[in-house]
Structures are given as structure tokens and as C-alpha cells.
Design a protein that fits this description.
The protein is α/β, with parallel strands linked by helices. The chain contains four helices and four strands, in the order βαβαβαβα.
């Protein structure tokens, strides 16, 4: 049984790059291009891990993570934040 990974990014090329790489390692890959879709996918399906872009228009990755961790139905899902932000404050906020 392979893990089901949700890739969330608003840039299609980034999503495709991660998707191709993960599929090559025999993971099952789901994708979302915005925060609300990511939350809905986590609520409606079995997701083992979320790879989450931080900088997205509308609902950013920090808010998506906050909502996932605040919901008992999705709080157990590990979230890996993906970002080009390099400030210590951004890293602390992600944690």
C-alpha cells in the first residue's frame, strides 16, 4: 500500500513537477491549486501527507495549515510547508 500525497500549489508547473517525481516513486498523488480545494480534499478523502505551498493568492498556506490542524477530522495529517520564504519569523509561523 502506498501513501496518498496531496500536492498544493497555485503554479501548475510546480504541481506537475512534484506529481511526476512522486508518481515515479509509486506514491498516489492528489493535487489542488488553492487552499479551499486542499481543505476539501483533506476532508473528503484519505490523505496521508500534504505538501503545501505557503505563498498562494487568497488563502495562503499558513491559513490552510491552521484550518487543517484546527479540525479534529484533519488534524492528524502531517503537513510539509514548501516555501521560498527565508525569514526566521516565517519558519516559526509555519511551525
Amino acid at each position: 500500500m502506498t501513501a496518498r500525497i496531496l500536492v498544493v500549489d497555485d503554479i501548475p508547473a510546480n504541481v506537475r513537477l512534484l506529481e511526476v517525481r512522486l508518481l515515479a516513486e509509486y506514491f498516489e498523488v492528489l493535487t489542488a491549486n488553492n487552499g479551499p480545494d486542499a481543505i476539501e480534499t483533506c476532508e473528503n478523502g484519505k490523505v496521508d501527507v500534504v505538501l503545501l505551498d505557503v505563498m498562494m493568492p487568497g488563502m495562503d498556506g499558513f491559513e490552510v495549515c491552521r484550518r487543517l490542524k484546527g479540525d479534529p477530522a484533519t488534524s492528524h495529517i502531517p503537513v510539509v510547508m514548501i516555501t521560498a520564504l527565508d525569514q526566521v519569523s516565517d519558519r516559526v509561523r509555519g511551525l
